[in-house]
Write a structure and sequence with these properties.
Elements: H1 2-12, H2 22-29, E1 30-33, H3 37-50, E2 54-59, E3 64-68, E4 72-73, H4 77-81, E5 84-100, E6 103-118, E7 123-129, H5 133-152
Antiparallel strand pairs: 1-6, 2-3, 3-5, 4-5, 5-6, 6-7
Helix pairs in contact: 3-5
Length: 154
């Protein structure tokens, strides 16, 4: 009877979520658009700004854009209790590439950063790639809307 109860509990145990493969991450970070590179590039910059990011660099020739959200306080209760303060932000990059005439791909990458410092002067930084598909779907959807609007104005 005890053995049957143990087996029943083991059968109910949940399995941990698998970490997505690099190809899976690339698949939801990337989207192809029917637009030339100039329109897609301007649309990505515009969407980053609409989302509150500060564009740090943008090079249309290479198609590379870097941006970061404003830094904010990320100190949790236990850090504050231990004399540690933390701040962080989300950093974003975009690669805009014309793959054939009239078609462009956009690949986004978001990384959550956290910097900590203690009252004793010790400092640490942790960068965590964002692997949840939802932020990418939202941003790429907004880029699609921006491309549609810009293409309609031509």
């Amino acid at each position: 009877m005890i053995l049957a109860g143990c087996l029943a509990l083991v059968g109910c145990a949940s399995t941990p979520e698998a970490t997505p493969t690099s190809l899976q991450v690339q698949a939801y970070q990337t989207k192809e658009f029917e637009a030339d590179k100039s329109i897609a590039f301007a649309s990505v910059i515009s969407v980053f700004q609409d989302l509150g990011y500060i564009v740090q660099s943008a090079d249309k020739d290479t198609g590379f854009i870097t941006a970061a959200s404003p830094a904010g306080n990320k100190t949790n209760f236990w850090e504050a209790f231990g004399g540690v303060s933390s701040s962080g932000q989300t950093k974003a990059t975009a690669f805009v590439e014309q793959i054939r005439p009239g078609f462009t791909t956009v690949r986004l990458n978001f990384v959550d950063t956290k910097s900590s410092s203690s009252i004793y002067g010790q400092q640490a930084q942790k960068d965590t790639p964002i692997t949840d598909p939802k932020p990418y779907q939202i941003a790429l959807g907004k880029i699609e809307d921006a491309i549609f609007i810009r293409a309609g104005m031509k």
